[in-house]
Amino acid sequence: MNKYEKKNREAIKKRKRKVRRRRILAVFLFLLVIIGSAAGYILYQTYNAAKESYTEIENRIDGKSELREEPVHISNDPVSILLLGIENYTDEYDRGRSDTIMVATFNPSDQTMKLLSIPRDTRVKIGDLGYKDKINHSYSEGGKELTIETVEGFLDIPIDYFVTVNFDGFISIVDLLGGVTVDVPFDFNDINAKWERFYFTEGEMELDGEEALVYARMRKKDPRGDFGRNDRQKQIVTSVIDKLSSPKTITKIDDIAKEIGKNVETNIKIREAIAFRQKFADFNSSRIEQLALQGYDLDINSIYYFDPDDQNLEEIQTELKQHLELLPPETNETTYNEKNQ
Description:
single chain; about 350 residues; alpha+beta; 6-stranded mixed β-sheet; two-stranded antiparallel ribbon; disordered C terminus
């Protein structure tokens, strides 16, 4: 082989490598376009589906609680969120009842959440109606607005956001997430609305949507009554948060958003939720502290109530206010020292 043939062969090889690189680049760009289009479609569909779940809290000026001096935003400020699980949607005139009532406070400075379950039989003053009753009756009497007003009065903190989910939506969302993991405290069995029986064994279990709902709602067979029930509900919430934080969830976000659009109401705007997720991508259940109300059994005219302990309630109110940065630093320090003496 002479030097000209050798040079010519090298030139051909060089051209082939360039063509191959261009083809690889073209395929890569094509895949980027496809992925980009799919992501755009998912984002578009998610946005439209989630928009259906958005609703304002009535009679709020600038969208803020009367207990706030300035509006707050979920991705920048310490905020509170009222979580309501609703049952008994029979028709458009029946609001149903809030079977599950939780308050979560989130502080962005340390990315921590405090989660409090309020037993549905808790005896509280119902908004401005002037009488005390079970807290879950506030939803049937006046929907989310009266429930928010009642919870604000009970905990003495502003409720900035709310989320309601009915049980059909709960089951569907848990199933789309691939189920939830819980630590069953003891063996028990219970039935669902269709009289189907489900069995739970002590220890870690993976539950689908229907099982998770039965697990979360059982109360009569729990020796701790509503308190044990509240703990199981908090297990579900923390497991859902972990599943939503998983990278695997991104492929299901479109379907999840559709379920949210059909079964969830909230005043959290989709752009706020996206901003929150981007800013606090590492947030998970390990950053959640669970709080518990203490109190006493109360019987009035053969009707059971849970009567909160005043001192414990005041301590929880203070702790939530601290987390929301509603107390000045010196108050925080004094309260902390008193609490730890």
